[in-house]
Amino acid sequence: MRVRKATPRDAREVCAVHEASIAALGVDGYDDEQVAAWGADRSPDDYAFDGPDAFLVAETDGRVVGFAALSPRPGDHLDTAADAEVTGVYVHPDHARTGVGSRLLRALETVARVWDADTLALHASRNAVDFYDDAGFHRVRETTHDFSDDTDGRVVEMQKTLTRQSRASRTVAGRQR
């Protein structure tokens, strides 16, 4: 498996991974109506690969099997202070629980360190809370996420303080901001 920066050519595969992940894995934390609203109206045009965010894909045998995104500007929806926000880690269900998500998250943490971020925050879907717990995030609060105009669901706000790496290992990640 290889993790790399996403390009516009990845948009269709990223969209397909996103939809498949929500449909198959979202049922572990949400009812059918919430899952349908969460996955509704996805389009390859929804994914911005240029700009300040880090957008990474994991690929195996030339196919995108997961993706992750990090923003240097945490959203106002977060209650906790953070230097960067993990805006998503999604893995195709055929590759779930094989280390793809962990590898993507570690790559985002490397980018965050290059950005000199000390803390990360995110809203974890119910089905992903254990994944983030295992990665060293701690729970801040439970809150509501709007999946659509008329459907919402509970998510968990989480935060992680990053440990510092040596300058040499931080340089390997390259500056992406």
From TrEMBL:
<protein>
    <recommendedName>
        <fullName>N-acetyltransferase domain-containing protein</fullName>
    </recommendedName>
</protein>
<dbReference type="InterPro" id="IPR000182">
    <property type="entry name" value="GNAT_dom"/>
</dbReference>
<keyword id="KW-0012">Acyltransferase</keyword>
<keyword id="KW-0808">Transferase</keyword>
<dbReference type="GO" id="GO:0016747">
    <property type="term" value="F:acyltransferase activity, transferring groups other than amino-acyl groups"/>
</dbReference>
<dbReference type="Pfam" id="PF00583">
    <property type="entry name" value="Acetyltransf_1"/>
</dbReference>
<dbReference type="InterPro" id="IPR016181">
    <property type="entry name" value="Acyl_CoA_acyltransferase"/>
</dbReference>
<dbReference type="InterPro" id="IPR050832">
    <property type="entry name" value="Bact_Acetyltransf"/>
</dbReference>
<feature type="domain" description="N-acetyltransferase">
    <location>
        <begin position="1"/>
        <end position="163"/>
    </location>
</feature>
